[in-house]
Amino acid sequence: MRTFRHKIHRPQLPGISSRGPASINISHRDNLGARRKRDSLLAVSIVTFRSSQVIGQCLQKLFKATSRAIEIVVFDNASDDDTLAQLTSFRKAVRVTPHRSNVGFGSGHNRVLAQVNSEYFLLLNPDVELPPGGLDSLVGHLEENPACGAVAPLLANGPHGELGGFGLSYPGQCCLPRSWRCLPGEIATLQGACVLVRSALLRSLGGFDERFFLYAEDLDLSLQIRRAGYSLACLTTVVARHLSGHSESGRSSLSVAHRKYAALLKFYDKNYPRRAIFWLLARDLLRFTFRWVVHSLSPRRTSFEKASEYRGRIQALWEYVGSRIGADEHRLAGASRGSSSRPGQSLG
Q: Which of 248, 283, 303 is the last residue of a domain?
């Protein structure tokens, strides 16, 4: 099996040596204003929400995935199930940070990043099970490849174990300028369920963009890492099991599809040129509407679920268009008020 990686010349990042393995040496300050120093090689961040059925097995597999000393922090997003109760048996090996409200996936990881002082930072979903020695392989890859900013295992997703975990292009990349093809490395995106990233690099990027509550934040982080001059890698020799979707159980297919596509539109809005967004919206509107009609007319139950998914995406699309129109009108109104308030010039 193949390891996807691509060596490049990269800019010097404070705290990462260009001649060897990365090490943290940055002037990051905590809430007390004291200078931080590296306490450990590896920290693991797990953000939970209604994860009682999966968190125990995740941690058991994690302990066997490395022979190194690790710092494990579980940030719980106000779970209303038995997630915290399940974690009591791991209290000697895991630090649990419960929160009174659900602040989102990226925000949870950012709060853990602020608590730890490690060279490498593992973003791990509670429904991911790493193979024995798998984490050691990921760390070894970053140690041997200083041009690589983040590395992930191959993911066996869902009940059928569909292999994935990385992408070679961005959504709608056909509409983007050619300069996007010049970003470092072959891998364009890593799925955020299990990613090992250099802590100094992640801090220099400001962590996750917290405007992404759930979904598409991994697309955005992958892009920011490559824009910083680093490549991404996926080790196909390390396969992790990813159950996928446990935190969305009980939600309708319409709601989940709406949330996913709304997050993707947020990614477009932040990173893509307006011209590209226009063509992608036009393409998606035609595609979604056609498929919604086809599935709506089908008597099969699976088609009913599909029709609901496309309906959710269409709703998210029109909500985005409405918000953009409103933002443009507000900006134009502000510009008009500003010009009218300027003192006029007398003639003659």
A: 248
CA end-to-end distance (rounded Å), the chain: 81
To the nearest whole percent, how much of the chain has pLDDT over 90? 74
Q: What is the DSSP letter of 343?
A: P
Tokens of residue 211, six digits = 């405007």
Predicted confidence (pLDDT) at residue 306 exceeds the cutoff of 60:
yes
- Tell which residue, 152, 149, 116, 108, has the closest CA to residue 134: 152
Residue range(s) defining the domain that contains residue 114: 3-248
Cα atoms found within 13 Å of the Cα of residue 115, Cβ hemisphere only: 18
Q: What is the Cα–Cα distance from 266 to 11, expressed in whole angstroms?
A: 29
Pairing of strands 162-164, 194-198: unpaired
Are residues 272 and 281 in contact, defined by beta-carbon separation less than 8 angstroms? no
**Are 220 and 296 within one domain?**
no
**C-alpha closest to that of 196 among 229, 159, 240:** 240
Global pTM value? 0.82
**Length of the chain as a residue count:** 348
Tokens of 273: 């040129």
Domain boundary among 248, 277, 305: 248
Is residue 238 predicted with pLDDT exceeding 50? yes
> What's the CATH code of the domain at 79?
3.90.550.10
- Together in a domain, 182 and 87: yes
